[in-house]
Amino acid sequence: MIKDHKTISASCLSPEQAYACLVQHSQETAYLKTLSRLLAWDQRTCLPSQGHNFRHQQRAFLARLIHRRQTDPALGEYLAKVEASPLAATPEGDVAVNLREWRRAWERAVRIPEELAVALTKAASAGESVWEATRPANDWESFRPYLGRTVRLQREKAEALGYAGEPFDALLADFEPGETAATLSPLFSELQRFLLPFLEKIMATPKRPANPLRGRSFPRPAQESLARHVAVRLGFDFEAGRLDVSAHPFATGLGPADVRFTTRYDEHYFGPALFSVLHEIGHALYEQGLPAEHWGTPRGTAVSLGIHESQSRLWENLVGRSLAFWQHFYPLLQKTFPSLPDLGLQDWQLAVNEVQPGLIRTEADEVTYNLHIILRFDLERALVNGRLQVDDLPEAWNEGMRNLLGLTPPDFRHGVMQDVHWAAGLFGYFPTYTLGNLYAAQFFAQAQNEVSGLEELMAAGDFRPLLAWLRQNIHQHGSRFRPRQLVARVTGHELQTRFLLTYLEKKFTALR
Ligand code: ZN
Prior knowledge:
512 residues, mainly alpha, Neurolysin, domain 3, 2 domains, 3-stranded mixed β-sheet, globular, binds zinc ion
């Protein structure tokens, strides 16, 4: 099975040969995974509405193939052969890193029966389509059975995988290796303890007149050319990637020179398109910066979703909502959109950093964003651990919104049905957004220490030194280090909330 459908016993191979087989196997599995991602990209950007059912079948078939490859019993023998050899002697060397991640992935994969793996993929694919169809109509009743089925399957998956703490940990490990609910809880509690009174303080200060940016005319072609200009200026290579439109912006790596991201345009406000481009470009730059010579192996793959998100949040917020960024881009924005009010730079920065508790996570400002994640973390944990049933989810959601943000959603669409994640079977994914914010602030503080004149460079429109720093310190390593190990190496500190909290306090105190 491992090579050319012939099972060559690992005992007949040298460790070098066994390792070469493992690399080939890993790359071939990556071909299938990227094909599946390409189908998903197509599903979200241009699939005709009647094509979804067939697409689910295609993706389920690929999932079956991938699962078979990942659970190949021969993998275990090959791994053991190389693990016992001197090849793996250098910790954090390419071989040792690949072995560590292959071992981990194999041990997880073999615990999931094939039928469950296929059922999970089908439920995710169908769930996503049903969510797309039912959300605009606010149709919770039609959506609910799909979500219920997905939660049941996710619980089954957690039991199959096993866990030391709680079922949720088993699912979280797919997205953020090394983290558990117990390691995240203290971080999230610290954030909540700071953010609630801080938000109250911000909201208690007299507000300036309503945000003057919305409701004007921002023609789509102008938004699109601005998006492309910004992407190139930040370092995105359009010869090795694409920008398209989808309902829910995302970025996806389809190969070493094929990284795609999407955005959506609102002709009454430039914000959703520009800031989602800044966000997704962070993901895309990370993918473009991974070492191509290690493509298809863990050494050439992003380390975790939290680290991935740190790249997107860094460009979207630490860079894209900074004074330095707008010193360079505001004149261009004014030229692109004659409808913009003529604000001074300080007022402009205030306008794009408006703090206002809202119902929608993806539109949240930097101060309230993590409160949205804390709500989701609590709820998905309760769902997976069996403390909350899907029928009771909307009420639990609304209660959480009232406690954290002081708001009650008027309908499902602006409440529990707003995100695609749970519909698509992504339980344990949400915490990676907050981890991303924490990592982003900590990385950026270090970049400020190490890249001399970073603010001045950004104000002059030169983002190359920052990208080079990220390439050098983060992108080129792929999965060489685990996330917490990476942040400690790069910044000299364990992951801490203080970098984000100091940044927020300084920025939003100055902005008021
Ligand atoms: Zn993201």
